[in-house]
Amino acid sequence: MSALEVYKAIVEAQTLQLPLKQDAPIFTRNLEQRLDGRRKSERLYAPKRPREVVDFSSNDFLSISSSGLLRSAFLEEMAQHPEMDIGTAASRLLDGNSEYVENLEREIASFHGAETALMFGSGYEANISIYEVIPLPGDMIVYDELVHASIHNGIRNSRASIKKSFSHNNPTSLAATLSDLRENNEAVRLGMQTIIIAVESVYSMDGTVAPLVEFVTVLEDLFPLKNWEIVIDEAHSTGLVGKNGRGLVCALGLEDKIAIRLHTCGKGLGCTGAAVLCNATVRNTLLNYAHCIIYSTSPTFPTLAAIRAAYKMLMNGDLAERQQRLQKLIRHFYTRMYQHQAWSKAKSAEILDIPSGKDYESQPFVTQIVPLWTRNLDNHWLASNLQYANYRAWPVDYPVVPRDQGRVRLMFHADNTIEQVDGVVETIVKWINERLNVVEGQRPRKRDLQLREKF
Ligand SMILES: Cc1ncc(COP(=O)(O)O)c(C=O)c1O
Predict the structure, then answer these.
(1) Which of 20, 111, 314, 328 has CA 20 to 30 A from 279's CA?
(2) How close is the Cα of 190 to the center of ligand 1, in Å?
(3) Do residues 61 and 74 both lie within one domain?
(4) Residue 370 to residue 408: CA distance in whole angstroms
């Protein structure tokens, strides 16, 4: 499917359906009415994946899945274990356990410098489980306002007595929120209840990196009785940050300070599933109380074999060259973009910002997530220009990003080329010039309209 065909399908999916389904049962009409709410604002998802388009969108950051590298390693791993059944046929607590999964967990825990690991079917399930199960009544959760939907959903279901957010990546805001809690809760002051801090290492929408050392300092200063624990989601740093891609916690040497780490396998590792790193007490609690484990079939052998194959490559340093290449490509993007004449015009006209690249030259690593911040709805225009030029990148809207903001999230991959990165920069520049020509207040959807006319 070409980019234009995909775009056409997305446009067609926005056609209101309720007027066409007046004879359908009330059940269907009510659902269509809800969907039409999305269609009216042109936000109905119509998942399509243009194959021949250059990937600046997927989470296969090291390109180990798309390049076939993981497939070869996976088939080798499968061949080495002819005794394994494909399915696990039960929950982990019944017949779904195996020496294979236990060994894999030991290998993963050892690689990340953790006491134990516990596998989940996905990062989503892992986050839901962590927050549903670990905070006990009376405990408190303090979370970064930009944490992933799975963390929000887990927190919503949690039994913690107090759930409070703090400003994104802001140690001062964290300190103020914690001081307030301490002031108003004797049990916290006396060290009788735990405060759980929920953060991510690299944030999935803005590519920002948590100031983890500063957070730990704030907590140590405020709670000398050590009744705090940090839970960190390393979804976007797994395989990418730190030595051999061990993650941010390892890169900062904070293994002993962090209670729970989530490493998802669906992004840098190119497969699915997740590993939760924690001590034996937390692992046992999750294993015994997490509904996603108790009431669900445990991950199948092919799922685990793919994870093991990917981890082996990480552990052996086989992905180091890809990790470096990715860094080079992202830095090249920032250099080219920020040097461009159009960039300063776009900045001063406030039609585009790329804050993730701030100080990129002095950073030890840059994240593969490069969001282009636009005005509300301009992101659709910019994204359609990129799609039109054969680069896959999608617009992101509220509620995934704050209301009245627009983003086009560029995701960089090890197998992107310098020429492709240059092409993306040129396309953005073309859009800037187009956008600068639009009179203030005019409906900023010119490209959308042009594309529609083509069909
Ligand atoms: C920060 C973060 N945590 C968790 C998840 C969920 O992981 P999974 O895709 O393995 O369910 C995602 C996926 O988008 C994520 O970005």
Answers:
(1) 314
(2) 36
(3) no
(4) 9
Q: Ligand 1: which atom is nearest the Cα of residue 147?
A: 1
**pTM of the predicted model, to two decimals?**
0.92
Instruction: Determine whether the shortest distance from the Cβ of 303 to ligand 1 is under 6 A.
Output: no
Residue 160: domain span: 69-315
- DSSP code of residue 91: B
Q: Which of 286, 315, 344 is the last residue of a domain?
A: 315
| Same domain? 78 vs 155 | yes
How much distance in Å is there from the Cα of 125 to the middle of ligand 1? 9
CB 237 near ligand 1, within 6 Å: no
Report DSSP state, residue 298.
Answer: P
Tokens of 93: 């607590």
Does residue 123's CB lie within 6 angstroms of at least one atom of ligand 1?
A: yes
Using a 6 Å cutoff on CB, does residue 427 contact ligand 1?
A: no
Q: What's the pLDDT at 3?
A: 65
Q: How far is the CA of 111 from the centre of ligand 1 (A)?
A: 21
> Could you report the per-residue pLDDT of 359-384, keeping only the tens digit for each?
999 998 999 999 999 988 899 899 98
Tokens 């290492």, located at residue? 201
Closest CA to 261 of 202, 193, 192: 202
**What does the pLDDT read at residue 455?**
32
User: Do 96 and 189 reside in the same domain of the chain?
Assistant: yes
> Beta partners for 146?
none
Given a cut of 50, the residues of the chain with pLDDT beneath it are: 444, 446-447, 449-455
What pLDDT is recorded for position 449?
47
